[in-house]
Each structure stands twice: as C-alpha cells, then as structure tokens.
Amino acid sequence: MEDFCGRTIRAVANPMKGFGVDLYITEGNRRYLAVAGPILMERKERESFDQIEPCITFDRQDDMQDLMDDLWRMGLRPSARSDEYKAQLESVTGHLNDMRALVFKDKKCWMQVK
Predict the structure, then answer these.
(1) Helices in 9-111 by DSSP H: which ranges?
(2) How many Å apart are CA 40 and CA 30, to the nearest integer?
(3) Is residue 100 in a domain?
(4) What is the pLDDT of residues 62-86, one digit of tens each?
(5) Cα 50 vs. chain centroid, distance in angstroms?
C-alpha cells in the first residue's frame, strides 16, 4: 500500500481579477499528485432532479482550517451580521462599561459605550 501524504486545499489571492481568490485542491502520495480541475456548471431542468450533490465535500477539519487561514491572511473575515458575533460584542461592551464604572467610580471623566 502506498503512503498517503494527504490532501491540500489552499486559497491564493489573484490580484489580476480585482479581489479574486483562486482555490487549489491537491491530493497525493510519494508516487503521484492528483490536482482538482475547474468546476463545470451543468444546466438541468428543475423537475429532472430531486437532490443537488455538493461540488466538493470537506471530510477533514484540517482541510477547512488551512482554507480559512489562507482567507484570513487575505483579509476576509466572518460577516459581522451574525447573531453570535453581535451577542459577543454586546457582552464585551457590557464588561467594558462595568470595568469603567469600577476604575473611574470617583471621577466623572469616562463615557459609557453604547
């Protein structure tokens, strides 16, 4: 049995396309390297299928982490509209207001964050 060296999923900035991102997927071992090709769109009648198959499936967390790290390095961040991030920000804001109240309790030089 050949030694499996793993799969690599990487994102690389492509400034020739404005803010473009190129994805590269490779998999292999010491003997071969398999490279993912372009995704081809296929037009079908809506009634001709019941389920749409994914064009790619990530089966390892490490694959996704490498991709997310690459996108982060390019400046992409999670959407700030997420309820989870809003709740976290509200929690931090409340904590900062509490700390200001403790530190500056005898002074009137601090402002409350809204």
Answers:
(1) 61-73, 83-103
(2) 29
(3) yes
(4) 878 888 899 989 888 877 666 777 7
(5) 29
State the residue for tokens 């694959």.
Answer: 63
Q: Is residue 86 domain-resident? A: yes
- How far apart CA 76 and CA 70 sit, in angstroms, is 9
Q: Which two tokens stand for residue 24?
A: 């590269």
Total tally of structural domains belonging to the chain: 2
Q: How confident is the model at residue 108 (pLDDT cuts 50, 70, 90)?
A: low
pLDDT value, residue 89: 82
pTM above 0.85, yes or no: no
Model pLDDT for residues 17-54, shown as the tens digit of each residue: 677 888 888 888 878 888 888 888 888 777 766 777 78
Same domain (yes/no): 61, 8? yes
DSSP character at residue 10:
E
Domain match, 66 and 90 both: no
Residues 18 and 64 both lie in one domain: yes
What gap in Å lies between CA 96 and CA 102, rounded to an integer?
10
Indicate whether 109 and 71 sit together in one domain.
no
